[in-house]
Amino acid sequence: MAENESEIPKRSGKGHSTSLLVILIIVAALVVISIPVGVAVLTYWWASQYTGELDVEPETGLEIHEQLIIESVTLQGDGSVEACIRNATSVDAWIDVAYKNGNIIASKVNQKISRKDTTCFTLPGTFTDGDEVTLITVEGTWIRFKVKG
């Protein structure tokens, strides 16, 4: 048996550990490269969620938000109120809901306020001096004012 043991060549293990080291270096390099690439892809995706759905005004290139300005509110003798509202943007706005003193008085008002124009209309219901009126557009913009006689 002693003779057979001397005939078996012994491995030093250098070849096996060198190939393992090369594989570990390649895996480490792939990990180091993939982490920044993954972060860049996630950042791009996150940012595109905010910029993908912008409405842009053609003249200025800026994002459009409703900008409605109360020009006048007039309490008539019969208790009706005429409101004149200016739309300062280049897109039409639509009044959807009207409230008086926190209580809904009309839904689906469907009053168009044309772009770059002032629209005057009579609000539904009757009002008195001091009533608080809130108008809400389809886009969710609130217009709030007090009726003054």
Count of runs of 4 or more consecutive helical residues: 2
- Summarize the biggest pleated sheet: 4 strands, antiparallel
Secondary-structure element pattern, one letter each = HHEEEEEEE
SS-based structural class?
Answer: alpha+beta
Please give the share of residues in helix: 25-40%
Assign the CATH architecture of the largest domain. Sandwich
- CATH superfamily caption of the largest domain: Immunoglobulins
Number of domains: 2
CATH class of the largest domain: Mainly Beta
Proportion of strand residues: 25-35%
Description of the molecule:
- Helix content is 30%, strand content 34%.
- It is an alpha+beta fold.
- The chain folds into 2 domains: 2-51; 68-146, Immunoglobulins (Immunoglobulin-like), CATH 2.60.40.
- The strands form 2 sheets. The protein has a 4-stranded antiparallel sheet, with no helix packed on it. It has a 3-stranded antiparallel sheet with strand order 1-2-5, with no helix packed on it.
- The chain is rod-shaped, with a radius of gyration of 36 Å.
- The termini are far apart.
- The mean pLDDT is 85.
What is the element layout, followed by pairings?
Layout: H1 2-7, H2 14-51, E1 68-75, E2 81-87, E3 93-100, E4 103-113, E5 117-122, E6 132-137, E7 142-146
Antiparallel strand pairs: 1-2, 2-5, 3-4, 3-6, 6-7
